[in-house]
Every structure is written in structure tokens, then in C-alpha cells.
Amino acid sequence: MKIAITGKGGVGKTTLAALLAQAYADMGRQVLAADADPSPCLAGALGFPDEVRAKLSPIAEMDDLIYERTGARPGTVGGFFTINPRVDDIPERFSVIYRNVRLLEMGSVDIGGSGCICPESAMLKTLFTHLLFRKDDVLILDMYAGVEHLGRATVDFVDAMLVVVEPTRRSLGTAAQIKKLATDIGLTRMWLVGNKVRDDLEAAFLRAETPGLPVLGFLPADLAVQEADRLGIAVYDYVPVLRQAAREMAETLARQDAGENSSQSSL
Ligand SMILES: Nc1ncnc2c1ncn2[C@@H]1O[C@H](COP(=O)(O)OP(=O)(O)OP(=O)(O)O)[C@@H](O)[C@H]1O
Ligand SMILES: [Mg+2]
């Protein structure tokens, strides 16, 4: 099952990605979490200890690896390089595991097709597509803010795209934009997740104003989320209400996925 998490900057994508990753790991699933934010912070949200995090660095910043695989150094403009380098060993070799969550940091990813034609983007695009093709049990992609990352590969392989919003018109505006872009390229399996929801009124606001996306669930606003960050503890461990809400979302998605697979196999 492949889950991509998107939404406006700061709405809580990384928090949700960490919660869902740990929820699936605790359900006994094999989880690969990929941090596709240019400034990675999923390791922190998952509460990875410093000694584990020290072993991790974003693929986009591995100059020697990029050179070895593409034949050119990052930052090179012009010249020749391989546009489909070997990447199949990367998820295992360059990830770390903590509490059954395998984590890979991608670094600055441009997979939408725009942006530079350079060795590092060739490497990341190939790696991203590879992740979508792989037969991982559960893949969680923590995307960066914005919508540029929606490419063709996303459509064919993502089982659920979660659009995170806060109870604000601005974040709903971004959600509507994401939905439009995704719909234009044929992606239909999208859900809205409301985060930082303070009360029933805010939940009702999101239900009423959703840009036509089904609501997967809500995560309450809780100052303990920021406290967990300061303390370096996973939100999953520190804030039981968020853990519970995430578990329910994880189960809903798993049921949906199991249903789709069984209806496919009976065709
Ligand atoms: N439910 C919540 N209650 C209170 N604070 C929250 C909640 N969820 C997230 N936050 C806080 O909001 C901030 C942004 O969260 P997070 O980093 O998960 O968002 P993001 O969408 O990944 O951001 P970015 O776009 O920068 O990657 C953090 O300081 C986090 O602690
Ligand atoms: Mg983030």
C-alpha cells in the first residue's frame, strides 16, 4: 500500500507521516517511510535517537554516490550523465530502521518534471519511481509543501493521497489546488485529513468546506505535539489522542486497500 502525504506548508504532513508509519509498524506491517522534504525532519517526528539519525543522510546530498551512479557530479550543468541510474539497492543500503520503521531521506526532490535537468534530479526521479514500483508492504511518502511533485508515476501507483489541512481557508485553498492537479492527471484516490482541529465547530467547518474530498479523519490540536518535538520524543508515544486517531486512519486505509485488492482479484 502506497500512501503519499501532501498539503500546504506547516499543516502537519510530517507529523501525520510519522504517526501512520508507526501505527502500521505496530500493526505488524513492513513500513518504508520516505522523507521527500528538502529539509528532512521525519526522523525527528518518529523519535529516532541521535545515534540512528547520525547514520542517515539525504540521497540528494550524496555527491559521490550520485557521481558513481550517473557519471556526473551534482551541480554539473551540461555534459552527459545517465538519466536512469541504478537505484534498486539504495532503499536498503541508505536507510535506517528504528522500531520497525525503515526510513529513507531523499533530500530535495523534483519529480514533477519541471526544474533542473541535472544528475541529482535524475537520481531522485529514478529513485522515486523505483519506490513506487517496489513491492513494499507499506510505503509512506512525506512530500513537501505544494503540488509540483504530482507526476504520472504518482497516479499509477499511489493507493491513497492524503491532503492535510488545518481548519483555515488558506490550507483548504491549497487542498483544492492539489485536488485539481491530481484530478487533471487522473488520480482519484484522495482523502482529506484535518489537523490541529480544536473543537467540533472546526471539524464541522472542514467537513462543510472540503473541496470534494472524503474526510479520512481529524487530528486534534494539542500543545503536546510541539512539546514532543522539543523533547525529541515521537508524537506517537507522547500524545495518545493523536496516536489513537492515526491508528483509526491507518485501519480505514488498510480496509479500503484490502477491499480494492480483493475486488481486483475477483475480476
Ligand atoms: N495536532 C497538532 N497540534 C499542535 N501542533 C501541531 C499539530 N500537528 C503539527 N503541529 C505542529 O505544527 C508544526 C508543523 O508540523 P509538521 O512539521 O508536521 O508540518 P509539515 O506540513 O510537515 O511542515 P512542512 O511543510 O514544513 O514540511 C510543528 O511545529 C508541529 O509540532
Ligand atoms: Mg514536513
Description:
With 267 residues, this protein is of the alpha/beta class. It has helices spanning 13-26, 42-45, 50-53, 63-70, 90-93, 119-133, 152-157, 169-184, 200-209, 223-231, 235-238, 240-265, and strands at residues 2-7, 31-35, 96-98, 101-105, 138-142, 160-165, 190-197, 215-220. It has an eight-stranded mixed sheet with strand order 3-4-2-5-1-6-7-8, sandwiched between helices. Strand 7 (190-197), helix 9 and strand 8 (215-220) form a beta-alpha-beta unit. It is globular. The two termini are 20 Å apart. The mean pLDDT is 89. The site of magnesium ion (MG) has 5 residues, from helix 1.
Secondary structure layout plus pairing:
Blueprint: E1 2-7, H1 13-26, E2 31-35, H2 42-45, H3 50-53, H4 63-70, H5 90-93, E3 96-98, E4 101-105, H6 119-133, E5 138-142, H7 152-157, E6 160-165, H8 169-184, E7 190-197, H9 200-209, E8 215-220, H10 223-231, H11 235-238, H12 240-265
Parallel strand pairs: 1-5, 1-6, 2-4, 2-5, 6-7, 7-8
Antiparallel strand pairs: 3-4
The structure holds adenosine-5'-triphosphate (ATP) and magnesium ion (MG).
Magnesium ion binds at residues 13-14, 37, 41, 142.
Radius of gyration: 18 Å
Termini Cα gap: 20 Å
| Shape estimate | globular
Question: Beta-sheet strand percentage?
Answer: 15-25%
Low-pLDDT parts are none
Structural class: alpha/beta
Bound molecules: adenosine-5'-triphosphate, magnesium ion
The count of strands amounts to 8
Q: What's the tally of helices?
A: 12
Oligomer state of the chains in this structure: single chain
The H-and-E topology, N to C, reads as: EHEHHHHEEHEHEHEHEHHH
Main-sheet strand order equals 3-4-2-5-1-6-7-8
Average pLDDT for all residues: 89
Reported for the largest beta sheet, the result is: 8 strands, mixed
The percent range for helix content is 40-55%
